Amino acid sequence: MIFFAPFRAWGERRKLMKDELAELNIHKFGNYPEYMIEKTRGIVLHQLKYTDSGIVVQLYTRKFGRLSFLVRGMGSRKTGKHNVLFQPLFILDLEIYYKESREMQLIKEFSVSYSPADIFSDIKKTSVAIFLGEVLTSILRQESPDEELFGFIEDSIIYFDKRIDNFANFHIAFLAGLSSYLGFEPGSRSAKNDLFFDMINGVFVTVPSLHGNYTNREISDILAAFFSTSYDKSMNISLSGVQRNEVLEVLVKYYSIHLPGLKKIRSLEVLKEVFG
Known about the structure:
8 strands; elongated; CATH 2.40.50.140
């Protein structure tokens, strides 16, 4: 089960990370006897430049959930080329130095499990990848591991990368599917007269909800289709740019209602322009 828990304030986390980095720098590139060597697979969520030659990378791992890693040497000619492999949605096989009590882990070795090359050669797909990376970074915060959730994200990335065309609905289908792994999957629309989607209770209802957080009949019909179909079929749901953007805004609002700590998604407006 996934539980959403907001991060500690970034300033506090950054201080703790600095303390740990100072300790790690004592070892430099030697051994780390207090760490266990573990193997896992990870999905890149986000990277942050930490020094001129180092980055902090956030990954969602199959074995440990979300982890932060210090990656050194990104400023050198030899290792700097690896920076491209730490873009959102790259899937890596990792051998790591791991210690549960640490905010910051270290990568011993890594290799590419899956390179979403087509995603980063298509500007529209790239905008989706940036958006999904930002959403997942905000949602997957210090979670315990969940292999089903990891599998869903991994399979979704590969499906999206291999999709040659007709992928304008993918980000909507992904958010619709992801909700079932986060504990607020909407109930199915069981009757034709369930005309409105109640975002507070996650159900389709016959009359508009008094609290005001509901969608109109047109958007409710579209949501019902996305919540009850496969990726392949959802790609064929016919939407205008205006409809697609409205559905996306509704889903982001639905997420923010059920995940109160969800940050404002800065890439949302760019994505709306691309597919509007």
